[in-house]
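Section 5: illustrative case.
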């Protein structure tokens, strides 16, 4: 058992206790971050005179050799070591001797693991931002392609008013823009370096924490050593932001699943993003969308696990906080996979414009506009609402749409109707009359698309 703390103890830790306590099985994931932090720490120790330049160079060369050997597969990270810090330090001492024993001067595993987790999380936020950006770019392109693709808008999963597919995609564009913004906020808020905080009370060594922070690309050092080693707010924030991303992906997936059904046929998913049935040869299942929807709960679970872990921990560091890693690593990998696959799925799916337009017509989505037409003729809105209700009932009984009614049929229900009713309730008129910013008309959507074009250039 390779441990960093044996001096106080007179006998070996029980193997079961050791295994339960060890974190090497998962914290080996940030071996790069651990060595990156150690290299910065050593450079700072030499700059303030705690290490000689020769000791600095020996340690740096040793760390670089370990990193190269791990990445080439020559050196394996095994359960012989309690954690990634033990692995690095033990191998360093084996390679360079006593100089390696000075690596840990002026720091604790508490501030070391806090740094590693921050470096890893910071890197993964950038990866997530890149994937959200790709999704935004695909949505932007789809909006430009479908600015005049008519479809029904829904409330309560009931057809409500006509919109365009660009308008529908635009709603998700706004959601994922907010998700991108949240990731940026988290990055800025967490980007302060905890290294040099020691176990909880700093250190008596004359460390230059500003230098360490600068070497590692942080905005500056953290300002309270107790908070530095016990803060996992940024993990909770990231898990919360990822849960929101997954919620948005899941809502979108639910709609893709419905649209892909035989009853709707609004879209057809590419073969590369679908699977068949082992028994029913006609099936083409939206498995990617269903898995994204299913994996959302997995990410929610990680958020709840972390909130629950942190809720009762007194200052400063406690071993409970080791539980911040496995669920977070899994959640990050899950969200990255879901973003990449979902983006590919919607980029390659085929849109059935005719089915969408026909669905809008058959669903009486222009009923509100028929009522507005009557109001324009001087009929009080409440009366107009009742008249159009009679029209809809009549159409349901005849199995026709409002567009299919003859003028004679209209006038039997209300003599106010004239020939211009047909233009008033056409899908194009219904959409194009809605010209305020954020509405579905061609001019409004062009304005939003132009705004998004400029927004994407800033990412």
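Designed sequence:
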């Amino acid at each position: 058992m390779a441990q960093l703390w044996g001096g106080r103890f007179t006998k070996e830790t029980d193997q079961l206790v050791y295994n339960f306590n060890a974190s090497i099985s998962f914290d080996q994931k940030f071996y790069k971050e651990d060595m990156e932090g150690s290299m910065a720490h050593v450079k700072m120790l030499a700059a303030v005179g705690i290490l000689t330049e020769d000791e600095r160079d020996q340690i740096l060369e040793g760390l670089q050799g370990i990193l190269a050997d791990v990445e080439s597969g020559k050196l394996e990270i095994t359960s012989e070591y309690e954690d990634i810090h033990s692995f690095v330090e033990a191998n360093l001492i084996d390679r360079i001797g006593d100089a390696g024993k000075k690596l840990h001067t002026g720091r604790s595993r508490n501030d070391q693991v806090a740094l590693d987790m921050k470096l890893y999380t910071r890197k993964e936020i950038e990866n997530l931002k890149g994937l959200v950006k790709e999704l935004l770019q695909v949505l932007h392109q789809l909006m430009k392609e479908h600015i005049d693709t008519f479809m029904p808008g829904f409330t309560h999963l009931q057809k409500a008013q006509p919109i365009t597919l660009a308008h529908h995609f635009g709603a998700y564009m706004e959601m994922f823009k907010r998700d991108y913004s949240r990731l940026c906020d988290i990055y800025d808020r967490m980007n302060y370096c905890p290294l040099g905080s020691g176990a909880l009370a700093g250190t008596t060594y004359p460390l230059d924490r500003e230098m360490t922070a600068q070497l590692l690309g942080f905005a500056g050092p953290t300002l309270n050593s107790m908070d530095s080693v016990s803060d996992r707010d940024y993990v909770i924030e990231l898990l919360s932001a990822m849960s929101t991303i997954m919620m948005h992906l899941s809502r979108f997936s639910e709609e893709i699943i419905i649209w892909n059904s035989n009853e709707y046929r609004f879209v057809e998913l590419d073969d590369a993003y679908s699977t068949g049935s082992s028994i029913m040869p006609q099936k083409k299942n939206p498995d990617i969308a269903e898995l994204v929807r299913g994996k959302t709960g997995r990410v929610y679970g990680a958020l709840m696990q972390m909130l629950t872990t942190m809720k009762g921990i007194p200052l400063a560091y406690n071993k409970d906080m080791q539980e911040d890693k496995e669920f977070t690593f899994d959640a990050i990998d899950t969200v990255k996979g879901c973003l990449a696959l979902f983006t590919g799925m919607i980029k390659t799916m085929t849109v059935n414009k005719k089915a969408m337009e026909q669905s809008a017509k058959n669903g009486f989505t222009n009923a509100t506009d028929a009522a507005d037409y009557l109001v324009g003729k001087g009929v009080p809105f409440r009366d107009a609402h009742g008249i159009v209700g009679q029209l809809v009932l009549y159409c349901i009984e005849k199995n026709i749409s409002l567009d299919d009614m003859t003028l004679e049929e209209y006038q039997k229900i209300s003599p106010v109707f004239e020939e211009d009713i047909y233009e008033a309730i056409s899908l194009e008129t219904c959409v194009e009359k809605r010209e305020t910013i954020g509405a579905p008309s061609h001019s409004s959507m062009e304005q939003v698309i132009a705004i998004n074009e400029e927004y994407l250039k800033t990412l």
